[in-house]
Amino acid sequence: MNAQSADNDALAVPSGARALLTVEHLTMRFGGLLAVDDISFAAGDAEITAIIGPNGAGKTTVFNCLTGFYKPSEGRLSLRHDSESGQQPLFYLERMDDYRIADAARVARTFQNIRLFPTMSVLENLMVAQHHALLRASGFTLLGLFGSRRYRRAEKDAIERARYWLDRVQLTEQANISAGSLPYGAQRRLEIARAMCTEPVLLCLDEPAAGLNPRESAELNQLLLRIKEEQEIGILLIEHDMSVVMEISDHIAVLDYGRKISDGTAEFVRNDPAVIRAYLGEEDEEQEEKGEQGREQERPEQEQSESNRP
Amino acid sequence: MGTDGKTPEPPSANPGQSKGQQASDREGALPAADLLQGRLSARQMRDLVKESAFAGLIAFGIFVFISGVRIVDQPGGLGLEYHWSRLVLYVGIVCVGRFLWGLRVRLRRPDHVPQWKAILGRTTARAPQVAKILAGFALVFALLLPLMPFASRYLVDTATTILIYIMLAWGLNIVVGLAGLLDLGYVAFYAVGSYSYALLAYYYDFSFWMCLPLAGLFAASFGVILGFPVLRLRGDYLAIVTLGFGEIIRVVLLNWTELTRGPDGIDSIPRPTFFGLPFTRRPAEGADSFHTFFGLDYSSMQRIIFLYYLILVLALITNLFILRVRKLPLGRAWEALREDEVACRSLGINPTNTKLSAFAIGAMFGGFAGAFFATKQAFVSPESFTFIESAIILAIVVLGGMGSQIGVVVAAVLLIGAFEFLRSLEQYRMEALGAAMVVVMIWRPRGLLAHREPTVLLHHDRALDLGEAIEENDS
Ligand SMILES: Nc1ncnc2c1ncn2[C@@H]1O[C@H](COP(=O)(O)OP(=O)(O)OP(=O)(O)O)[C@@H](O)[C@H]1O
Ligand SMILES: [Mg+2]
Description:
Number of strands of chain B: 2
Oligomer: heterodimer
Distance between the termini of chain A: 54 Å
Shape of chain A: globular
Number of helices of chain B: 20
Bound molecules: adenosine-5'-triphosphate, magnesium ion
Number of strands of chain A: 10
Strand content of chain B: under 5%
Number of helices of chain A: 13
Structural class of chain A: alpha/beta
Mean pLDDT of chain B: 79
């Protein structure tokens, strides 16, 4: 596949949906290392777009560029809000600071190695996610100090939103305990709930199923599908777990060594010889090996968080 | 804390002797000979002696120049004075102490929980209740203190000093405890506050009440000035830069003689008035002073007590502010920033503004306390703002438990109180402080009363929630 044709494919979403995020010629260099090499793709609105690829393919780096943690060496990342939802509908993410991307462009993300606020309570984690609305309501703290009615109302709303998402990820019972004391799977769900509390238009999930058992994984599928349908937001998903990816993705982009090697529907990618060669393995053997590796890496993390439990 | 009757056999114990040992176990105390023969193998014994000797060697290295050899001023130049007996004593204490400690560790049952740990565990579990009761008690005591029969001038004065430190520690707690930014130069803001008032009063005859907000404002601006260059720094790097900042302020105050009068300091800073009523014995012609207005006899205690209540109010305002701000988005953002800055960014929190606000607000309270200090002493000089002050304030925060309000009070009372108490033992003060810090950090590594209560709770009972909503609307 030459660059030209990849380009033309890239700017359309396979299902024909409106493109929420358009990534064009994204390149990220770390010194001499080309971690992401001229990648272009589009992610549709109200669709789940999966980014898959072997370890070190550059998936997380794409996320970090999208969310402003890295400044891309080259390329354009444009995010187009629904025309009715904002006054400023088009954002060029590569020009924005990370916190502005979350706040103004409304891109939320989770992290491959979970990043919660561990000593704060589960509910507080969700309140921090609603920082901006609350800060404004508290008159940048001045009114809040004197217990203004407006702030109390805003706080109540924020708690209600937090409660809604806690219900959705089945963490309502644990709302008042510290986030760090939750078991691993619950921490992953909490991180998703926290991202959703920012009311994003694009939700980026970095390996949300890592370290989950099959039942939890299935629940995650349901959760993501319902978020997509009910909130009508785009979801960008990095995942090694093929049972998750193949089942819920509307669109899959495959990376290998920083380049995009395939892009299309699950059906298309599954049968794409380039993908089979590079990623799914010649035969079953290699895939098995890959799966083993993935699990091996996750296990220590999981054990650690389990042993943290009192 | 010696071995009790239940001490088990170490695996290496000689089985032939275990019977006799058990017999002696039942009697309670263990004869030393028994300990040394039956319970420790020769190898363990050798290790123990080796460890003690090594500890002794280190102690020798430390104490030889501190206590063993002293430089003294003699006629005809400097000379050396030797205190070998003292050196031997110190090294001996360390050796024996290390030996006994090692013995105890080796004889301990693996699953044995020492009594002090069990007690500590229990108090930790009850920390929130303990803190609440303590806070209530402390508040009532603080309010009534000057009215107590035993409240001498010295006592109220000391209590005022303690309250200054409490206020400073609470202010620093915003930066260190909440926002997690290690600041070793906090005294700089205290100095800025003090000198703001001193200079404005000296050059422009501003009154205390006018200068108090200005001092806070100036200190806050210096907080922002310090904040900008250190935004990207964390942990130890931040600590070093803030330390440097503190020294810069002090050195500038010391050397800018035209403005600050340098090491001479500024004296006869006006005292605060009570709503315009000064605390002078003889008021100006036609004016009232505090005692004439209220028809009291003149007593210098009136001013002391007024200053005490003034700092009490200032400190309580600081405390109230922190209690409230923790429940506001700004306070939560500070804490979130302390926990994970990257996650904060991903949630749209501007780390620059959040950090600067922590620096500025922390500095502001330092500035208020500084203005109070200037008016209490009626004299400021750069000597009051050395690094050791920053260290003491930080020690109070760390000892009390980062982020714990009442812990700070306990730590300030203990530390500053101990300083006063140990005043007669001038040369051992710092040693005692160091030892106390080490002990507390071993026993309670997170501080005396470290405990974090969530700032917002989810009430599972929706009916209760509704009731609260009604109540809130009524009020
Ligand atoms: N900050 C960085 N500095 C230098 N190299 C980096 C940096 N971040 C990522 N890389 C490199 O870029 C490449 C892609 O890394 P990335 O984390 O994006 O892979 P990934 O696809 O997410 O892999 P995984 O499945 O293991 O998470 C790797 O070779 C990695 O070492
Ligand atoms: Mg990754």
